[in-house]
Amino acid sequence: MKRYLWTIGFGVALFGLTCLLPSFQNYQLATVAAYLCATAGLTVLTGQCGQLSLGHGALMATGAYTVALMQSAFENLPLSLVAGVLVTVLAGAVIGVAAARLRGPYLAGVTLAVAVVVPGIATMFHDVLGGDQGLTFYLAPPPFGYDFPFERWQAWIALTAALLTMLLLGNLAASRYGRAFRAVRDDEIAAQLSGIHVARTQVLAFVVSAAGAGLGGGVLAVLALSVSPGAFSLTLSLFLVMAIVVGGLGSLAGAVWGAFLLVALPDLTARVTEVVPLSPALAQRLEGNLPLAVFGITLVVVMLAAPGGIQGLISSALTAKRGR
């Protein structure tokens, strides 16, 4: 009941905030919510179950392309998002079965291969998936009338998806499945001696994480009204991993910080490059690489100053305050 009340409270506050923000800030808030679906799922897999995945950008692409194809065929957004989650869950189950047999760098290598291969499938099947140009689709106007701001409507869709994801994953983390995830993360042999089926638990964690990634990718497609392979490159997968580490590995609250940084840092670097006078060639060279470099530097600084991430630093400060 406590989680339901918190979810309702945050929902009311965030939906009210969208009525005060201009269109671009609503779009940014919606983008944070879309990334939160993916970072929260990856937190369950990596932070709570101990499995490293470098291919979650590919799972987001799976959900995004499914939503685009379903919208083009049926123009039913709830059906499209559900289909995107289901198809991504199926893909996550297949990857999870293979990943349950691997450890360490071998697991990272398999998921890295997925991140590289899946976006290339769109180019291979260009007749269906649009090739490098991707797909565009139609989204019906808000049911509140044509005068209702479209960006606010997109923000409501994204916030609903993010709040539902956080509620379900919060309940899962507090259940016996969440305890099984953490037991497998801490010591697989001890977990197996306690009666936990390690491989089945790892596959379940991968499926849950894939569902979050599929929903996040589908929401990103809804925000852009298009989907293309370039939006789900290997860089996105690396960003997602760095986001949950900087935010606080193993904490759903840390996933919120990570999703916020995924939107805030590229925007901040873009503003810096606009202010600093640079040659056109240098600005073009920095456009794609500077956000990754800034994120990497932020990761190093946070790990040195607060190994538990942003949320770990906040939790330590609150604990010290309560102690005094």
Number of strands: 2
Instruction: Tell me the number of helical segments per DSSP (H or I, 4 or more residues long).
Output: 14
Largest beta-sheet details = 2 strands, antiparallel
Order of helices and strands: HHHHHHEHHHHEHHHH
The average pLDDT is 90
- Rounded to the nearest angstrom, the distance between the terminal CA atoms is 30 Å
Number of domains: 1
Strand order of the largest sheet: 1-2
Could you please describe the fold and organization of this structure?
This protein has 324 residues and is mainly α. It has one domain (2-231). Helices cover 80% and strands 1% of the residues. It is built from 14 helices and two strands, in the order ααααααβααααβαααα. It has helices at residues 2-18, 23-48, 56-74, 77-99, 104-124, 126-129, 150-174, 176-186, 188-193, 198-224, 234-248, 252-275, 280-305, 309-323; strands at residues 135-136, 226-227. The chain has a two-stranded antiparallel ribbon. Helix 1 runs antiparallel to helix 7. The chain is globular and about 55 Å long. The model has no long low-confidence stretch (mean pLDDT 90).
